Amino acid sequence: MKGLNHPTGGNAGFAFRLVFQCHWPGAPQPGRERGFLNTLRLKLVFGPLRIAGFGMALFCALPATLRADRGPLSPERLAQESELIISGQVLSLKVGTERAHVERGFGNYDWAIDLNIRVQSIEKGRLDGSDSIVVRCFRLKSRKSAFECLTPSGNHPIPDVGAKVRAHLYRRGGVWRVVFPNGLTALPGQERLLDGDAVEALRSRFTYWLPFELWIFIALIGALLLPILVIRRLRRSRPVVSGRALPLKNAP
């Protein structure tokens, strides 16, 4: 039975190829050359595209692990960049959305984290007759492209309600903002600050689900493949004409 199922040589192999495969050994098999050429064309087209797609995916994944963050500023540098320095306790925390603080192009957004701080002392600057102040921190929320993800990711840390902090502030657009990255520091004798639960839950992503560079790559691939698919469909829809000539009945 094994010889009948897998004839590999001799008269049995010859008979199997002749009867079941319907062609003489050595004769060209119909469609084999065409199939080989089609496979070769597809490999020539899709091989470089596969490599390019892998490279683009790797390029878009890098910003998830790389950030162009500022290093922590020294106390002297924090004081230099501050218009107002206060000490107090965080009374409330509110999370919203705003246009990106650093990458200000379209499609870029940040988490706007507003802290209401009860002022206990003022070390630098002046505050007009109020015992509390709302200050804004930010964290990266969304960017439209992979390149724009290589940007400072915001303030670190941003503590939860109840924490006692020293806030280094500057004013922009009518809002008191915390100097980034480490404009909120612990008071002397206090434990170091950590992110609050609400801040830890914040996530960043691409604005349009995929980076803008990848959308351009997909559009280029589509523009390249569409004519190829249309031509293949047109070729398949043509009627097949047999190359075998019919014998003439009234041959001269």
Task: Write up this protein.
By secondary structure, this protein is α+β, with helices and mostly antiparallel strands. The chain has a domain at 75-206: OB fold (Dihydrolipoamide Acetyltransferase, E2P), CATH 2.40.50. The chain contains 6 helices and 7 strands; from the N terminus they run ααααββββββαβα. The chain has helices at 2-5, 10-19, 32-61, 75-81, 197-200, 212-237, and strands spanning 84-99, 109-124, 132-143, 164-172, 175-178, 184-186, 205-206. The protein has a 5-stranded mixed barrel. α3 (32-61) packs antiparallel against α6 (212-237). The longest helix has 30 residues, at 32-61. It starts with a helix and ends in a 15-residue tail after the last helix. Mean pLDDT is 78; it is low at 1-9 and 11-33.
Residue fraction in strands: 15-25%
Sheet bearing the most strands, described?
A: 5 strands, mixed, barrel
Number of helices: 6
- What is the CA-atom radius of gyration, in angstroms? 35 Å
Q: Which shape, going by the Cα principal axes?
A: elongated
| SSE order, one letter for each helix or strand | HHHHEEEEEEHEH
In the CATH hierarchy, the third-tier topology of the domain at 75-206 is known as: OB fold (Dihydrolipoamide Acetyltransferase, E2P)
* CATH architecture assignment of the domain at 75-206: Beta Barrel
Strand line-up across the major sheet: 1-2-3-5-4
Distance between the termini: 55 Å
Q: pLDDT below 50 for ≥5 consecutive residues: which ranges?
A: 1-9, 11-33
Helix residue percentage:
25-40%
| Overall mean confidence score, pLDDT | 78
What is the name of the CATH class of the domain at 75-206? Mainly Beta
Overall SS class: alpha+beta
Number of extended strands: 7
